[in-house]
Amino acid sequence: MTTGSPLLYEQVASLVERQITSGALRVHDRIPSVRAMSRSAQVSAATVVQAYVDLERRGLIEARPKSGYYVRLRRHERLPLPRVRRMQPAKPRGVAASVLDVVREAIERTDIVHLNLTMSPASKSPNQRLNALIRAELRAHPNHAGEVLLPPGDLELRRQIARRCTLAGSPADPDDIVITGGTMDAITLALTSLCRPGDAVLVESPTYFGLLQAIEHLGLRVVEVPNHPGAGIDPDAVRVAVETQKIAAAVLMPNFNNPAGTLTGIDAKRQLTATLGDAGIPIIEDDIYGDLAFGPERPCSLRRFDRQGQVISCGSVSKTIALGYRVGWAISPRWAADLQRAKFYSSVAAPTLQQRVLARYYASGGYDRFLTRLRRGLAATAEHFLDTIAVHFPDGTRVTPPAGGMALWIELPARIDALELFRTALASRIGIMPGLVFSAKADYRHYIRLSFGVGWTDEVATALQRLGALARAAAAAG
Amino acid sequence: MTTGSPLLYEQVASLVERQITSGALRVHDRIPSVRAMSRSAQVSAATVVQAYVDLERRGLIEARPKSGYYVRLRRHERLPLPRVRRMQPAKPRGVAASVLDVVREAIERTDIVHLNLTMSPASKSPNQRLNALIRAELRAHPNHAGEVLLPPGDLELRRQIARRCTLAGSPADPDDIVITGGTMDAITLALTSLCRPGDAVLVESPTYFGLLQAIEHLGLRVVEVPNHPGAGIDPDAVRVAVETQKIAAAVLMPNFNNPAGTLTGIDAKRQLTATLGDAGIPIIEDDIYGDLAFGPERPCSLRRFDRQGQVISCGSVSKTIALGYRVGWAISPRWAADLQRAKFYSSVAAPTLQQRVLARYYASGGYDRFLTRLRRGLAATAEHFLDTIAVHFPDGTRVTPPAGGMALWIELPARIDALELFRTALASRIGIMPGLVFSAKADYRHYIRLSFGVGWTDEVATALQRLGALARAAAAAG
User: Fold this and answer.
1) pLDDT value of residue B95
2) Binning pLDDT at 50, 70 and 90, where does residue B446 land?
3) A1 band by pLDDT with thresholds 50, 70 and 90
């Protein structure tokens, strides 16, 4: 099976999708009948039906009894983006810890609907394949328990990661890759290698709350630059920050920022990489969501624009196939040796079995096909979320439609206290993330992050509607 | 199978061993004939033979043709201990990095005899058992790849660890245990939780080189107190250090210090725990070798003497059954919540599959029987190493006979440059550890650490003899 080449029905679906997104087919237009499409695309009627069912599942078209398929009104198209926030170049300051423990505890509740976890249900992982590869690995290396794969880690896995980097347009050498215990482990190792305590680290606002806590835990400070709704990291703000402040490193998430879901554009990526690179500031790229684009192409890493070797790109399989494996990587020609040392001295190595199993999984093909399914599923679920929010959330709600990943960043009416909503929702057995944890200044007090990794089920739909009702009540009371 | 109760032949072997160590049987004494012992111990002749073969394998007795078994002269009994080093209370100072990369690279060479690795050969792990448990776990949790066990980690594993703590005389509550990615991960998390950059950390001299590097990597400094040959950590030196310097935390290895192999006695343990506890200084105990006692009892953790809740005891299965699993733990009633946070924010979690498999392994019994075999094997290999060193190493060589663990700490004649010997040995495809890496001051320039985890084979014996010849040549040339 060649990875990545679409099946026939997918080609037909893409054809229709392009007509919809280009405007050739508009809302309520009837799309070609199965017979007509079968003839014009020269595929079987069964293939066309499969394509249309897929498009319907993804919320792009709808069947009308005895009439055929029509382009569907996506209700969320009337939802505005969150407002662009004016942000003064932030002075470095300590990260506030505040309510984080409560938020973290909600992650582990087993009795709630998890709109607070940026992960897919475990059943969605390619479990049969992975478990078959584990069994094969037990036969190939029965003594794996006593074997350690010291940093930089398993060579075959590094080769496979390098191969994927090359396919994604940013070639890497296996020698530049260091295997870690996940993306956050890679970022922590990079931060401890590059920064001295008290140093300032450039981050986006909003950004992943765990990153802010890791920075705080290491005795570092943060400088925030805005990630704008729909646009991504602001390269001008990066330039101003670099010109006005002493910055030891940047940690950026240009591909589907968590929580904002935005994809930073090519030009902005090029600009900010040059700005930071010219200033000699290392860029730690958190690329954990890069494989989860809703569009046809995987967005590029900042490494593509890295003329000075300043970028350390960090990733893992945690958001795609194996959150429980605890394997990730850092890629950097310049700092690979430092990262190896840091990994060895802080925690010795990543687990042996999983390194080898992932190498086998990549090598045996099928990851791209799996990703295609996963990304389509996520994109479809995001549509459902947006539609439900458009109908059920209070007036004044603003949302960034995500370009990939699993997060929806929602600006509620300003009079809503999102931390209070978090507590009310939890009492109704619904987990959400209050916005204030995604900034060192805790200034997203009327924002929430919802994750649609959970998938679209009746239970999720009901929970989301209920959350909308709670938000409306809060807006009315506020 | 009840864990820990010795087999019949082991009981007989112990009987003879006690007579030898007590002096009731002396060197060259004939030990009772098989028939006599069979009668007096009321066991079969076959059992006695098994016991005597075991004692012979362990180097305690020797067979003389047509005459019977005799107590063997252990040649190393003429080897003196390394000298006690006078050590001024050390001023905090940075850790020298120097030749560490070369030493670390030697760890990964596949073409040398590894006297430089404190690990057992992978084939010695209980691989069949562990792999069977993995297969069982794949059936019980087929979706494990997508499941994450967030800190504090798998409850059943924490229960099993707590149970073992209680059996070893230092009860623990599962809630006080945080699962980590190995012992060093636990120590790093404790250090980042308890210390601010620039702080001074009390360590032993000598101590594990990776610990010194981790401390350096975190921007901390060290204060060294001596671990005396044969005696262990000096509680008076601890008291003086506490009285004269500001110390943020101590990292101590009272059970089989690596590299010295010494077991710190009960009284010293009690004293130093009280001294540090009364001064409000947290004690991070590295108990990674605690299960590898050569004597009949597992030595106790400092937790037994911890009146103020100051001890964080760190351990793993890396030196016993599963170096490649990357699972360890930290135990602390007081700081468990901080350690959970630190683990979550720095690297999220330990691998799911291995946590559950270890819980199954502990629960299903047999670990203690495995340990008994492993410890006897290590003790026997240590004897062979010591005997060979006594014969083949230059005059003036001094060694601490280890009480457990896998390390031999060897003082060579002062005119030998151990780093030079490391290089010469590596050229002869023999890996050793130069002593200077085991101190922040690099002042063990004529010391080496050999690991006997490798086991006793012809290849190892030849390498050790060759190393002795190289050392003799270096002593003659120096």
Assistant:
1) 39
2) very high
3) very low
Digit-coded pLDDT (tens) for B403-438: 999 999 999 999 999 999 999 999 999 999 999 999
CA distance to A23, A66, A195, A234, B211, per residue, from A247 (Å):
45, 64, 9, 17, 29
- With 0-12 / 13-18 / 19 or more C-beta atoms within 10 angstroms meaning exposed / middle / buried, residue B332 is buried
What is the reported pLDDT for A394?
95
CB contact under 8 A, A150 and B108: yes
Q: Is pLDDT larger for residue A76 or for residue B398?
A: B398
Report whether pLDDT(A77) > 80: no
Best CA proximity match to A126, nearest among A368, A293, A327, A299: A368
Which of B109, B120, B131, B183 to mutate: most A Cβ within 10 Å? Answer: B131
Residue A466 has pLDDT above 90, yes or no: yes
- Sheet hosting strand A447-451, strand order edge to edge: A398-399, A407-411, A447-451, A433-434
Chain B CB contacts of A146 under 8 Å are 119-125, 127, 321-324
User: Does residue A224 contact residue A204 with C-beta atoms inside 8 Å?
Assistant: yes
What's the CATH number where A307 sits?
A: 3.40.640.10
Domain contains A294: yes
Contact across the interface for B219 and A213, Cβ inside 8 Å: no
Cβ distance of B213 and A146 shorter than 8 Å: no
CATH number at residue B15: 1.10.10.10
User: Which residues of chain B are within 8 Å of residue A150 when distances are taken between CB atoms?
Assistant: 107-108
Q: Are residues B48 and B103 in the same domain?
A: no
pLDDT at B76: 72
Residues in CB range of B43: below 8 A, 6 or more apart = B8, B9, B12, B37
In a domain, A219, yes or no: yes
Nearest CA in chain A to B125: A146
Name the domain count of chain B: 3
On chain B, the residues whose CB falls within 8 A of the CB of A135 are: 135, 138
* Domain range enclosing A457: 76-122+369-477
Structure-block tokens of residue B255:
């059970």
Compare all CA atoms of chain A with the CA of B117 and give the residue at the minimum distance: A148
The two tokens of residue B333 are 């009633």
Rg (CA), chain B: 23
Please indicate, yes or no, whether residues A174 and A243 belong to a single structural domain of this protein.
yes
Q: Are residues B46 and B175 in the same domain?
A: no
Taking 50 as the threshold, does the pLDDT of residue B110 lie above it? yes
Q: How confident is the model at residue A120 (pLDDT cuts 50, 70, 90)?
A: very high
The answer to whether residues B247 and B276 belong to one domain is yes
Task: State the pLDDT at residue A359.
Answer: 97
What is the pLDDT at residue A98?
Answer: 57
Q: Provide mean pLDDT across the span A94-115.
A: 78
Q: How many CB atoms lie within 10 A of CB A237?
A: 23
CATH number, domain with residue B389: 3.90.1150.10
Chains A–B, number of C-beta pairs less than 8 Å apart? 209
> Which of A119, A145, A184 comes nearest B347 by C-beta?
A184
Residue A1 lies in a domain: no
Contact B122 A128 (CB under 8 A): no
Position A128 in a domain = no
Lowest pLDDT segment from A16-25, A54-63, A168-177 = A16-25
Contact A213 B138 (CB under 8 A): no
Mean pLDDT, chain B, as a whole number?
91
Is there a single domain that holds both residue A276 and residue A197? yes
Mutation target to probe the B interface, by most B beta carbons within 10 A, among A143, A327, A343 is A143
| Residue of higher predicted confidence among A16 and A378 | A378
Is residue A92 within 8 Å of B112, Cβ to Cβ?
A: no
CB–CB contact B352 A325 (8 Å)? yes
Q: Do A127 and B146 touch (CB under 8 A)?
A: yes
Please name the amino acid found at residue B317: V
